[in-house]
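ZP: hey, is the S-adenosylmethionine complex queued? I don't see it on the tracker
AM: it wasn't, my bad. submitting now with these inputs:
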Amino acid sequence: MSSNSGNKLLRRLACKVLGVEKAKKIWSRIEIIGDIAVIRKSPNISMAEIRKIAEELVNEITYVKSVWCAISEVKGTFRLREYVHLAGQRKSETIYVEHGCKFKLDITKVYISPALNYEHKRIANTVKPGETIVNMFAGIGLFSIIIAKTVKHVKIYSIDINPYAYKYMVENVMLNKVENYVIPILGDAAEVITEKLVGVADRVLMPLPELAISYLKYAILSMKNKGFLHAYLFIRSIGKRESLEEAHKMYAKELEKYVKDYELIFSRVVRSVGPRKYQVVLDYYVKK
Ligand SMILES: C[S@@+](CC[C@H](N)C(=O)[O-])C[C@H]1O[C@@H](n2cnc3c(N)ncnc32)[C@H](O)[C@@H]1O
């Protein structure tokens, strides 16, 4: 279910349970992850009201087995949210399907965002057969496994510091039969790269905006003499178009510290993450 149709469903259920007038005023959002629904509650709706909607959701949508309320933003090193169980089975583990690949995960223990769906396939479509890739912040393996399923003969070193993300990544690699292509590694990307991945990569993925600047030197360290870099970052800006220009201007200054030459080959706004705050991706071709 797309986020748009999910939010329409939530609005319809809110009308049924709370009445049209109250429903008009709420701006809660819903994400469906496998057979789990996650509601991000807006402050103007009470927990009791959201619980009623969640119960209606489980009754109406038969494939939704469990509903949780996300009560915090994504936070901490592992990029997790806090949750409260609302309705249905009290289970937080599920299988999420994206681009024909299966991902086992526990929403309370690992990062997951269906909003990155388009990015996962977009990056996979830019990879060429035979490439060696370093995915510095691999989570449960979405980018890495989708690349391995899309392109032949790749080798993707996939690092994550969260032991649960690593555990699920190992399982997901087997579930999708990409053991020969995706290499899960548990650890801090800076340490792993310095110890065993210097100068190996044709392409480096940095899907963690919080470390886009401080870990850039390790991204470049892991690269061969030249290669592609995909950096995800947050930027405050007056508008979407401006956010891309500002992000590139700021990031290019950082790149100049570590590489001889660089070219911005693509950029896009991945999503809005707050008032005048955007997540953007910058794709560079760099020469060391
Ligand atoms: C935004 S999530 C990754 C999302 C994932 N690439 C995806 O598409 O679903 C960032 C991940 O980086 C991991 N992480 C945080 N700090 C790290 C570090 N220093 N080294 C390696 N992984 C790190 C977190 O545990 C988390 O799983």
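AM: back. The longest helix spans residues 3-18.
ZP: great, adding it to the tracker
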